[in-house]
Specification:
- The radius of gyration is 18 Å and the shape is globular.
- The chain has a single domain, classed as Ribonuclease Z/Hydroxyacylglutathione hydrolase-like (Metallo-beta-lactamase, Chain A, 4-Layer Sandwich).
- It is of the alpha/beta class.
- A 10-stranded mixed β-sheet has the order 1-2-17-16-3-4-5-6-7-8, covered by helices on one side.
- It has 8 helices and 17 strands.
- The termini are close together.
- Helices cover 22% and strands 28% of the residues.
- InterPro entries: ComA-like_MBL, Competence_DNA_uptake, Metallo-B-lactamas, RibonucZ/Hydroxyglut_hydro.
- This is Competence protein ComEC.
- Pfam families: Lactamase_B (PF00753).
Length: 289
């Protein structure tokens, strides 16, 4: 989606680029081409979530969730010429996060499929794990403290713990990515109860970039949690005109308060796929939408 004017917001380590008006895609890319970068794409998968994380040269690629089935998720990868994923992580076994894997035909190779210890969604879980076995993909259930291979970055699971059996949204695998200086936090559909328990375990959740939980629902994003994360940029993956009223006005109000500026709340229903470039040790750059 293009906007007719651009503004620069320089907030701490972030530069937010509002596209476009005399500034081309090539112009923006040239600003970051000299740095080692990772690209985070919040794919527009409607009422669901999928984040593609890859190096600028496509030497490696990771995936956090795959949206719903019948949303063209795999087409998004094919258009980007993605034929291999080092790993994919299923936050939990709800169809709007894992359903895309039901259409996996093996044309994209995945080395390892990590997944939450979500006790729900048994049929969906079993169906997808069978596909993984068919395509020779290793499967691993994750828990707090586990580190995923992440090249120069650190990728760590913060939730759930291995000693508590939970199902549904609060079983969402929370992923923290860090370069030792800045962080991004992905919470899946984590709700208020899960947030509270995570806060008891993790006393430093600060992250410059936050994937807002449960599509901005009232059941997620407690003020206490948001204040602890203190994001500079908040991304909501949500379907246009969805029947759930996501994102909730109360959630948007809290996010505006915490970020200090409603323009730092970015929604896929309004803006489509969002692209963030992460320059190692240099910060995060919202490239365009």
């Amino acid at each position: 989606m293009q906007m007719k004017r651009f503004q620069w917001y320089f907030v701490g380590i972030f530069t937010l680029v509002w596209q476009i008006g005399g500034c081309s895609q090539a112009d923006i890319s040239s600003e970051v081409a000299d740095f080692g970068t990772a690209k985070l794409e919040f794919l527009d998968v409607g009422q669901g979530l999928s984040v593609l994380i890859q190096s600028s040269g496509k030497e490696w690629a990771f995936l956090y969730d795959a949206g719903n089935d019948s949303t063209g998720f795999w087409d998004s990868l094919h258009v980007r010429n993605i034929k291999h994923l080092d790993w994919a992580l299923v936050s939990h076994w709800h169809r709007d996060h894992a359903g895309g894997f039901l259409e996996w035909d093996g044309s994209v190779q995945i080395n390892t499929l990590f997944y939450s210890r979500d006790t729900g969604g048994i049929w969906l879980r079993d169906s997808i794990l069978k596909l993984a076995k068919r395509f020779g993909t290793k499967t691993v259930a994750v828990e707090r403290g586990q580190k995923l291979p992440c090249e120069e970055w650190s990728c760590q699971i913060l939730w759930p713990t291995g000693f508590k059996k939970i199902g549904g949204n609060d079983a969402s695998a929370v992923l923290q990515i860090s370069d030792g200086k800045e962080r991004a936090l992905f919470t899946g559909d984590l709700e208020n109860l899960g947030e509270a328990e995570l806060l008891e375990l993790s006393h430093d959740l600060q992250a410059s970039l936050l994937q807002v939980g449960h599509h901005g629902s009232t059941s997620s994003s407690s003020l206490r949690f948001l204040e602890q994360v203190a994001p500079t940029l908040a991304v909501i993956s949500v379907g246009k005109g969805n029947p759930y009223g996501h994102p909730a006005k109360s959630t948007l109000k809290k996010l505006s308060f915490v970020t200090g500026d409603s323009s730092k709340i970015l929604r896929t229903d309004l803006l489509g796929t969002l692209v963030v470039e992460w320059r190692l040790k240099k910060g995060l750059w919202l490239r365009n939408y």
